[in-house]
Amino acid sequence: MTTEPPLLTAPAHGVPPVVDSPSAFAAAREALAAGSGPIAIDAERASGIRYGQRAFLVQLRREGSGTVLLDSEALGDLSGLNAALGDDEWVIHSVTQDLPCLQDRGMVPAALFDTELAARLLGWEKFGLAAVAERTLGVRLAKEHSAADWSTRPLPEEWLNYAALDVEVLLPIRDVLAVELVEAGRWEYAQQEFAHLLSFQPKVHAEPWRRTHGLAKLTSRADLAKVRELWQTRDDMAAETDTAPSKVLRDRELIDLARSRARSSDDILARWPRLSRADSARLFRALRRAGRLTPDELPPKREPSRLPRSPFSHTEIKERTAALKASVAEVAEAEEMPHDVLLQPALVKSLAASGRTDVEVFLTEHGARPWQVGLTAPALSAALDQLPRG
């Protein structure tokens, strides 16, 4: 019979008060500057509740400084932390999730350590913070508040307890993972990845409305135009009320509205009674705008590609991509590493479509790190040699 690891229920030194005034923020900066070594950092958002992905609470912990909880919504600009933290390493679990909202508040790291990515580089199948804490420290973390509405004020004490615990475990987790990376011969891989993350920016879609779930159900350009107008109107409404767009209309409802052939705002209100009369009228005007577009103004059925024109047909690209992905998968299996960490699938597809055979140069030009190039280029070159030329 296995014994379940102990559950962490409270921070070792209690939950500090939330910093929400300029004077308290100045004192927090001084405390953090007086500390030393890496800084554990986490951020809490209100995804699916508020508009955008901004941080409502930012947690930091540093040796000699203790834990600091910042009401980032009240404070706004957190750029003053940069000088206090200096050039020391920020330890974050999933940099791609948290760094953008920290940058939006003015925070810019000089060095990073991503505990989630480190676990993935080690080939761990479970890499959420709770799973990594259990494997490295032998403790359990309660995660019931991860999807809470962190825009709530005042924040409940039990939520703050949860937030403080998340950064309390990050620094010891980092130390264990660093040792394991060295022992696995992957410390240099990790260093290259962490340096690359310093310039991470979320992908910006030229036509974000095409990410609407269920768009594939629509076959006419006229209906696509309706979705485009409805999506933008919904986004404007969400931004004005600081509400997640899905709270205005879910994607499937947006698709249904585009296909509904509504004749008036009353038709919309009858089908979605939770909308106000003003919002129903606004959405109907979006439908009318789409209906007045000329054929030349209608969106194409597919998003225009920003990639160079390929010498291969769509079917050939699929076949070539499958062959190259299979070669990467073989290397990933041998390395006991996830294939998407070894090399991003989108990069593999780009190589397949390009028709180029200078694999090392291509991968480097497109952002692959030296360790990735070294492990995958030979296998990809061999796979390309077996494929027809463009």
TrEMBL record:
Which top-rank group of organisms is this from?
A: Bacteria
Family matches, as Pfam families: DNA_pol_A_exo1, DNA_pol_A_exoN, HRDC
Domain (3'-5' exonuclease) spans 16-182
InterPro entries in the cross-refs? 3'-5'_exonuclease_dom (IPR002562), Exo_C (IPR041605), HRDC-like_sf (IPR010997), HRDC_dom (IPR002121), HRDC_dom_sf (IPR044876), RNase_D-like (IPR051086), RNaseH-like_sf (IPR012337), RNaseH_sf (IPR036397)
Query: What is the residue range of the signal peptide feature?
Result: none
Instruction: Supply the name of the protein.
Output: Ribonuclease D
Organism the protein comes from: Brevibacterium ammoniilyticum
